[in-house]
């Protein structure tokens, strides 16, 4: 896929959020989702990234901290996708993948579960 405008991409993100598997967001705490055009230069192939403290690593002193973030990288997702339906699916998979990191699930386990 070569191009999709920002408004349509945002709409696909909203649709993916509505299509998240039941229970995926039930225990999320202090997380914000952003869309950026491109990933950081040091990791140019990323489709998305979670930055924060996974729930499994938080203790009683955790609080009053900035929100964890999930970034989706629009240009990489678009370039990776064959068409709009594939893009919608990749957005969903990427969101679930990054939310799983928030829950403390690593990449190896995500691949086992089919969300790699």
Distance between the termini: 21 Å
CATH architecture: 2-Layer Sandwich
Order of helices and strands: HEEEHHH
Give the tally of β-strands: 3
Q: Helical percent range?
A: 25-40%
CATH topology title: Zincin-like
Number of helices: 4
What number of domains?
1
Sheet with most strands: 3 strands, mixed
Mean residue pLDDT: 92
Q: What are the segments in which pLDDT stays under 50 over at least 5 consecutive residues? A: none
Rounded radius of gyration (Å)? 14 Å
User: What class do helices, strands and sheet pairing give?
Assistant: alpha+beta
Describe the structure.
This protein has helices spanning 6-18, 74-80, 84-102, 107-113; strands at residues 31-36, 48-51, 68-73. It is an alpha+beta fold and 116 residues long. The chain has one domain (1-21, 47-56, 65-116): Zincin-like (2-Layer Sandwich). A 3-stranded mixed β-sheet has the order 1-3-2. This is Metallopeptidase family protein.
How are the elements arranged and paired?
Blueprint: H1 6-18, E1 31-36, E2 48-51, E3 68-73, H2 74-80, H3 84-102, H4 107-113
Parallel strand pairs: 1-3
Antiparallel strand pairs: 2-3
Helix pairs in contact: 1-3
Protein name: Metallopeptidase family protein
Pfam families: Zincin_1 (PF06262)
InterPro entries: Zincin_1, Zincin_1_sf
């Amino acid at each position: 896929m070569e191009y999709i405008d920002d408004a349509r991409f945002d709409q696909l993100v909203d649709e993916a959020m509505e299509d998240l598997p039941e229970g995926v967001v039930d225990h999320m705490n202090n997380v914000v989702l952003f869309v950026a055009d491109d990933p950081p230069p040091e990791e140019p192939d990323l489709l998305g990234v979670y930055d924060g403290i996974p729930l499994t690593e938080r203790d009683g002193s955790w609080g009053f901290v900035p929100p964890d973030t999930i970034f989706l990288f629009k240009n990489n997702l678009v370039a990776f996708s064959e068409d709009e339906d594939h893009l919608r699916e990749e957005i969903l998979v990427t969101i679930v993948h990054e939310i799983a990191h928030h829950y403390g699930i690593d990449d190896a386990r995500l691949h086992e579960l089919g969300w790699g």
